Amino acid sequence: MASSQVHRSLKEKQRQEREELILKVAQDVFLERGYHETSMDEIASRVGIAKGTVYLHFPGKDDLVIAIFERDMQEILSQMDACLDCQTSPQARLEALLHFMYAGLFSKRTQLLSSIYHSADRQRLFAEKGGCLRDLWERVAQRVAQILEEGKARGDFDTTIPTSIMTSTFLSLISPKSYERLLAEGQFVPEDIVAHTGKIFFRGIQAKS
Amino acid sequence: MASSQVHRSLKEKQRQEREELILKVAQDVFLERGYHETSMDEIASRVGIAKGTVYLHFPGKDDLVIAIFERDMQEILSQMDACLDCQTSPQARLEALLHFMYAGLFSKRTQLLSSIYHSADRQRLFAEKGGCLRDLWERVAQRVAQILEEGKARGDFDTTIPTSIMTSTFLSLISPKSYERLLAEGQFVPEDIVAHTGKIFFRGIQAKS
Amino acid sequence: MASSQVHRSLKEKQRQEREELILKVAQDVFLERGYHETSMDEIASRVGIAKGTVYLHFPGKDDLVIAIFERDMQEILSQMDACLDCQTSPQARLEALLHFMYAGLFSKRTQLLSSIYHSADRQRLFAEKGGCLRDLWERVAQRVAQILEEGKARGDFDTTIPTSIMTSTFLSLISPKSYERLLAEGQFVPEDIVAHTGKIFFRGIQAKS
Amino acid sequence: MASSQVHRSLKEKQRQEREELILKVAQDVFLERGYHETSMDEIASRVGIAKGTVYLHFPGKDDLVIAIFERDMQEILSQMDACLDCQTSPQARLEALLHFMYAGLFSKRTQLLSSIYHSADRQRLFAEKGGCLRDLWERVAQRVAQILEEGKARGDFDTTIPTSIMTSTFLSLISPKSYERLLAEGQFVPEDIVAHTGKIFFRGIQAKS
DNA sequence: AATGAATGAGGTTTCATTCAT
DNA sequence: CATGAATGAAACCTCATTCAT
Asked: N or C: lower Cβ tally within 10 Å for chain B?
């Protein structure tokens, strides 16, 4: 029946909305307190639902972090795809990515992403449950590498530096560790930091004239 | 009595050796499993002593991590002091530091240090018990900044890039996140990675000719 | 909805019943084994629930004893208020109180109360968490003093003995130490003991004729 | 050999002195902190010896309390014997005992004695290891009873009140619970309290004229 | 479908006791 | 003898997960 269909899809929509909400709240709490210091109770009560309800959406706490990680990675990939489609120079695209990670909408999530990716605790977690996550991260690395290769081909970047090391260095910059400290000093706005950091990197890899 | 004195110092020496051993083992386990996934039981049994014995050396689990962190930071500072005394160029000194962190004796510890320093969990830990640790890290940052300033003064480094951002970027490179991946690929030995990474950084900050 | 309301209150009722049960069992075990010799596991398993469930009702072991103490003190106070309302003589009222403590429903609890109130361990406990408990005990003492004063005013009791010492002596009688021994001898029923003890006390404080 | 004998007895004397010291210190600490809150470490370090040395004198913590209790009881018994030998009236002898317990040299120990004797923890302790202690206490009670009987025979005390209840009531007065409160009020010196308390008791049991 | 009370494994920490030195 | 480092049992408490309602 149509009404049932509508009903079903309405429920489904609500379900997805709540799932989104859980992810968002969980992200915030994980970021504030850290993974282990955050209890499922805290997440549930901040969302405004019962603890058991969280388990209707995610089989366990692990899966919750993995889901967050996955969602963010997907979003980064989307953004990167958008960048790839841009007709701008490789450097401009990577600068856009940096900006997206730090100064753009993603700035907050970048911290959690980094915090999750580091920390030995979660390495094991990913090994067990999140096999696909390794792939996601690989794909991000591949896209960066791809852009860098393109830049090399165009004669923009130094071909004597292995692309994989360039990639690795670039990704290292996406590390909110010292970024926070810089912001805390209060001398810079995010845009400045991204600009200067990018400048160092791109001058570092630019083809010798 | 001399014999008593000797006796005393022997005991003391054994004590310190054991303490060292605990720190070393704890470091390994924390690195493998992460802070929360590691139990005091695990550490003790790996050292080959009883759980209670660990508590004779460190008042709690927290203090154990803090002790590890502190010891490593002190060692880094020592190394940096040694670098500062070198009569080599600023760049050479920073390169030596990078090498020490990644390719040298410190390579393994760097990972834990980074893993500890990230992760929201421990931020709070440090706020409570390890007030001095923040200082230690600050001191490392200051030494790096100092060398960078010196390089600027000598006309080696670009004076249009703020020193704090240079420092921050340099410290970002000390981040074993992607380093591990590079090693895993198997194409490079640590020395290569350090060399190339340094190259990118120093070309990035070098004074325009 | 009414059903929801009923539901809620049913749950709440069950909750309170369980809480009562925990208190009752805990009281027994504390009485048998003493505070420190009693583990939360023991209490839980005697109630027939899991250890964690006890913590849903009481935040800690301390709070459990305090809750027991508080509940009993409140009941004593209620009883004393009832006594105060009686139109009988001061002596009759105090005799009723003695009877309530030893021979009445409260006989069992009196022991724990006394056992808790003594013992250096718990003095410190009360200082920390049970600030209000000191007050409760003080209030009991005050009521007794009040009745004694009234008796003095009526010319029943000896005005040359300070009320505070009378009070103190009276409360000393509420001390199951030797009471147990008397019962164990088997020559007396509680009523006898209370009667004779009261007789000694009241003759001891009666106004000289 | 004589010298060996002397040596032996000297050592033995030192041993006993230390044992006394341990008992005295342990008594203080138990009184301050309570049995369970006191660690063997605390006792040993206050005495100024090593923890292991305490175990050369007492097989365990339990035995330490029992020894304290036993020693005190013996002392009380001695005092009572001294009282019994006095040619004063039964009442005077009991008053002397009360004074000894509260206002005399024994005042401090009385608290621990009471604190030990109450508290369920130790009831079990005595049942296991200190079978003889029950006897000691019984003997004290018997002496009191004996004096009371004598008083009855002389026509001093009321023969309608069972001696065992008189005894029990008398012993109840030896209960520092409320005594402390009285002292804390600051209105009385120990002598006053003992005097008034005794007055109540003896008037309570005196033979009707 | 949502709830949240109940569970119990697992972690940290203490401390009485032992025993090699 | 005296020592005190080492032990390990046992306690308290947390919290991810389940399941009856």
From this structure: C
